[in-house]
TrEMBL record:
Residues 1-11 have a biased composition (Basic residues). Residues 421-767 form the Exocyst complex subunit EXOC6/Sec15 C-terminal domain. This is Exocyst complex component. Belongs to the SEC15 family. Residues 60-229 form the Exocyst complex component EXOC6/Sec15 N-terminal domain. It comes from the Eukaryota. The keyword Disulfide bond does not apply. It comes from Trapa natans. Residues 1-23 are annotated as: Disordered. The keyword DNA-binding does not apply.
Amino acid sequence: MNSASKIRRKVAQPSASDGVDSADKQEQLLLSSAICNNEDVGPFIRRAFASGKPDRLLLHLRHFARSKESEIEEVCKAHYQDFILAVDDLRSLLSDVDSLKSSLNRSNSTVQSVAVPLLDSLDGFLEARNISVNINLALRSVHSCIKLLELCSRANLHLSDNNFYMALKCVDAIEGEFLDKVPSLTMKRMLETKIPEVRSFIERKVSKEFGDWLVDIRMVSRNLGQLAIGQASAARQRDEDLRIKQRQAEEQSRLSLRDCVYALQEEEDNDVLGGGIEAGGSSESGVLGFDLTPLYKAYHIHQTLGLEDRFKQYYFENRKLQLTSDFQVSSMTPFLESHQTFFAQIAGFFIVEDRIMRSSGGLISKLDVENLWETAVSKMCYVLEDQFSRMQTANHLLLIKDYVSLLGVTLRRYGYPVDTLLDVLSKHRDKYHELLLSDCRKHIGEALAADKYEQMLMRKEYEYSMNVLSFQLQTSDFIPAFPYVAPFSSTVPDCCRIVRSFIEDSVSFMSYGGQLDFFDVVKKYLDRLLSEVLDGSLLKIINTSIHGVSQAMQVAANMAVFKRACDFFFCHAAQLSGIPPRMVERSRRQFPLNKAKDAAEEMLSGLLKTKTDSFMILIENVNWMADEPTQSGNEYVNEVIIYLETWVSTAQQILPAPVLRRVLQEVLCHISEKIVATLYSDAVKRFNVNAIMGFDVDIRLLDSFADNQGSLFSDDEASQLKSSLAEVRQMINLLLSNHPENFLNPVIRERSYNALDHRKVVMISEKLRDTPERLFSTFGTRGLKQNPKKKSLDVLIKRLKDAN
């Protein structure tokens, strides 16, 4: 280091003998300093070339190299001394090494003599250890082969027992644990060949079992669907029975005078199918042999084989094909006969799918089941639309509708939406009721045609209960003595049964159809049945088949009973629809059979008028110019009264008082009009006061007949009955009045002669004016009797003619 610093100092001093100028010296000094300090000389080179003096730079570099040669020489001299010293040290070290070598040789000879026996022992040990290792390897190979053979034997045993899952587990264990470790190449090749064959064999066997299960499950599904729908039907029937008992209890409570307490205990619903399906597969197997083991086995085996997705797709496609096959409707068998099998098959299919979806661990997804259900619903809707459009019998529609509604109830329990199916049923509501109305029209026509219109005889209490109590036609709460003659004919209970059947069928169709409040619909069609069908049929039979008074009277009596029956019909419809009867009572409408009732009463009164007309012919025998008035009435009125009294004695047994009053009022009004018409007619040219006084007696007899009916009617009704004779009574009173011109007084006319026609008064009064000569046999008497009344009558006639 000292020599180097000396040399560096020597380089740093400029030579006194250099002939260069100071600038060159400075540049040389800087270049030397940069080289010594290992700095970059690039700037010097660039500057030299830039100034065009590279030779000077080369000169400086050569000068620096010469200056360094001397320095190198000095350094070499200094190092030479050190090298000489080192060589001396090495020579002394070589002698030490020779002595060490001889010592090592002696030690080696000693060690060799001692270690040879040990090395021989070590060789023997290593050979024995290698033999032991080989033996252990052989033992492990033997044990491995034994385990492998045991697994192969176990796999064969499982295969022979059809325990495919355990066989696959053995095969997987052989492949995973032993295949790469088998010492025998031949055995390894055998295993590599047989393992795929075993798996293929298991897959074929499981697929065959699954195919057999697919065949069996169709029959099981049908039976399962029929059982499930049958249980839904039984549950519905229990509910219906419970509601009937409830209605009976409420009715008895309402009618009973004592405080009664009714307790209805509902039986437990032991739903074997529902409970079994909710609980698990074991209950299902107990009910119908509903076994999903082959399916689960096949699915599990395919999962083990790593073919899970392929099996899912295979299962879904096959079940979809089965469902499509279930949709086929045979054209050889009427749908009415095959519809239960058709819907039960579909119901069973989706009950099975629901169970598989919830218990198979992902074999089929909820979305797939929903897609299958949507397909099934659309197909069922199409089939229903098609079959309903062809049906022309209401009962057939009802049977299919009931079964479809039971299908909906059954599958709704498993979470399937059935509103679309119920909408199809609701859409055919009008067609069903039209067919039902047509059937009822036919049955009602047959019942009316078969009736003889005679009072119905009931010999036993059950007949009374069946024909009267069941329709609430009784007028008393007491059971009559038997035999009992009803006030109606067989038409009434027959038609009531038809209407009640219509109500029950209508309610049955509307029930369980998704619509809770359907009473208004049932009421609408019931109104149509009564006002169009029953009323129209009664009108037709009245106008075409009723010819006698007794028949007409019976029809009129039937109409009165029908009025009570109609109240029962609407209450019965309300009860079946779940509507309180008091709400129906509040909204009661007019009698729907009014046209037939009016026609029956009109027919009866018309026949009675015809009959009385046969007696009124005797009015021709009246002595119009009688010498004295009759005291016992004319012959015709006595015959009429005898007939009417006889008829009333019979009619009051079956006709209600209002009907009897209206008919009698019509008949008496007709008699009144007939008498006035006779006086007005051209057949009567003249009559005297004695004849009018005889008619006055006739009217009093008719009034007396009306008064005698007071026990049947109220005072007002009896007064209305007598008012039917107002026209003839007022005409007789006017003709017998001493002051007939009072008719011209508006007040008196409104009070006493309001039923008279001016023209009739003129014509009839002119006939009375022609009195017989013998009434005026003496001159004095003639003047006393004639002048005041005749004068008044002449004034009346003249004034009325002037007014006209």
